[in-house]
Write a structure and sequence with these properties.
Blueprint lengths: L2 H4 L7 E7 L3 E10 L2 E11 L14 H17 L8 E5 L1 H4 L4 H12 L3 E3 L2 H15 L7 E6 L4 E7 L2 E8 L3 H8 L7 H24 L4 E4 L2 H12 L9 H14 L18 H15 L4 E3 L4 H13 L4 H12 L4 H22 L3 H13 L11 H11 L7 H12 L7 H5 L3 H20 L12 E5 L2 E6 L1 H6 L1 H9 L1 H6 L3 E6 L1
Parallel strand pairs: 1-4, 4-5, 6-9, 9-10, 12-13
Antiparallel strand pairs: 1-2, 2-3, 6-7, 7-8, 11-12
Helix pairs in contact: 2-4, 5-11, 6-10, 7-10, 9-10, 12-14, 13-14, 13-18, 14-18, 15-16, 16-18
């Protein structure tokens, strides 16, 4: 069963996406029509979460309460939508929290749905996916820039596929607070801000210039705000240009103080953070050689809707990420297939007893394909090496929590399982992680010979805390190593909360 088999999204059903940005929280609700999302409702609240992030990685009480109250209101709107048709993601500020799980637990309670943390590059992929569906079809490379509250994403892609994605720690809130303390605007501060942000962009500027993109788009609220002011003040009739940005910069500096800032076309809630956004775009125009930037109405929240429909339609980017990772680290594909087929055979025998669905089967398939990636580093402790790769790699389609799930299973597929790795997972993933780890361990054990050979008829029965494996007695007599391995497996299984009983038939 594929991912598309178990996530059924039919025409007429509602889907929703929640984007927990560092400046604003957005939610879009759409009805699926002819396989496409038709937006029927939008909600947006200015939360300014980045402004509440302290140096020690904690979030102040005011901004925490503001965020949770907003999510509670969003939750009321989508209370009747099943969680399988809702995707809620948190971005830069939550990524930077010292203890994100405490906030996520409260956030999920308020919203009534799971919340994922996405990496900067995954955020960029989703932004480009949303923007691309909104723009006219083109075969040319495009540059999309999304200035958020705490970070800025730069994506070059063609069609619906991103080719280059970068995320830098510079957003409209963070940059305004850092470079214009007390809200004071002057040329000296502006020059310092432009120079420091320019240095951040130099790490990829040359590669981006050589990528030969044809058009540039700004997809964030900051880009929309700048476009609105530029048009209202008649600085430019067609998009944002270097000259119009310079005029806007001068207009901001002339006013001198953010607290009293008023410009034609500038919304009141954007005034406190517009300076940081303008200086980021100005630095980006210079570093990347942008001559004109147009505003795109769609961004990550629309990308989340399309990604949700892609998962349901059998084009889950996570499968492609797993296969690419296996290729990159030279996984023995034949052995991985043997382990995968054995693990899935065992899965099918216990799925009903453990109430496992097609999505759980997909997870077992993924970890089977990459359980040996650590061998590319060293055979000794390769399960730890593999877990490290899975925990820290940029894997398109996977949230941070999902990568932790992959890592926990791979880390515990041999030797003594690490209970702490499972305890660190979100509650909703813990049981699944232990169960698929148990199945993967058995599959690896049966495929220890690393060669094509038929396995005996085996029966695996399960209860909540027990596995009973029945094998032909004659086969066990002929495979004393496997029998010894199975007997020794009882202690590791107990670390997973399971007892393993072996019987000869």
């Amino acid at each position: 069963m594929s991912q598309g088999d178990q996530i059924q999204i039919k025409d007429g059903e509602l889907i929703a996406a929640v984007d927990m940005g560092s400046n604003s929280y957005h939610m879009v609700v759409a009805r699926v029509e002819h396989g496409e999302p038709r937006v029927i409702d939008r909600l947006r609240e200015t939360v300014r979460m980045a402004a509440g992030l302290r140096a020690d990685g904690t979030l102040d009480a005011e901004h925490r309460a503001r965020a949770l109250n907003c999510l509670a209101r969003f939750g009321q709107r989508i209370a009747g939508v099943p969680s399988i048709r809702v995707r809620a993601v948190a971005t830069n500020t939550v990524r930077r929290l010292a203890s994100p799980q405490a906030f996520l637990t409260a956030a999920e309670t308020a919203l009534g749905h799971p919340v994922e943390i996405v990496s900067g590059r995954e955020e960029g992929r989703l932004i480009f996916l949303g923007a691309s569906h909104d723009l006219p079809a083109s075969r040319e490379n495009r540059l999309v820039i999304d200035v958020g509250g705490g970070s800025t994403e730069f994506i070059i892609g063609r069609g619906l596929a991103p080719m280059h994605t970068e995320s830098v720690q510079a957003g409209c809130i963070a940059s305004t607070l850092r470079f214009f303390p007390g809200g004071k605007l002057n040329r000296k501060r502006w020059q310092r801000a432009s120079s420091e942000i320019g240095v951040l962009l130099q790490q990829f500027a040359e590669d981006y210039r050589e990528a030969s993109w044809v058009e540039a788009f700004g997809s964030s609220g900051t880009a929309k705000a700048i476009g609105s002011v530029v048009q209202a003040m008649k600085f430019s009739d067609e998009g944002v240009t270097p000259a119009s940005l310079a005029l806007l910069r001068d207009a901001l500096i002339d006013q001198g103080q953010i607290s009293t800032l008023k410009l034609p076309g500038l919304a009141e809630d954007r005034a406190p953070v517009i300076a940081g956004g303008v200086v980021i775009f100005e630095a980006a125009f210079e570093a990347l050689g942008i001559e004109r930037l147009r505003v795109c109405e769609s961004s990550m929240r629309e990308g989340l809707l399309w990604d949700l429909l892609g998962r349901a339609g059998g084009t889950d980017p996570r499968t492609a990420s797993i296969d690419a990772l296996a290729s990159r680290y030279g996984v023995d594909r034949a052995q991985a297939r043997r382990v995968e087929s054995t693990a899935l055979m065992l899965f099918d025998q216990v799925a009903k007893a453990w109430k496992l669905d097609g999505e759980a089967r997909e997870w077992l398939s993924w970890v089977s394909r990459v359980h040996e990636i650590g061998l590319a580093i060293a055979h000794s402790q390769h399960h730890h090496h593999g877990a490290y790769i899975l925990r820290h790699a940029d894997l398109a389609g996977f949230s941070r929590q999902e990568q932790q799930l992959l890592a926990a299973v791979v880390e515990s597929h041999r030797r003594k399982p690490d209970k702490a790795q499972f305890s660190a997972l979100p509650q909703r993933h813990r049981t699944l992680a232990r169960q698929i780890t148990a199945l993967l361990r058995l599959a690896v054990l049966f495929r220890r010979a690393r060669r094509a050979e038929s396995l005996p008829q085996m029966r695996l029965a399960a209860t909540t805390q027990r596995l009973r494996l029945a094998l032909p007695g004659t086969w066990l007599e002929q495979h004393p190593l496997t029998e010894a391995d199975l007997e020794q497996e009882q202690a590791p299984m107990s670390e997973l909360g399971l007892s393993l009983a072996l019987s000869a038939v």
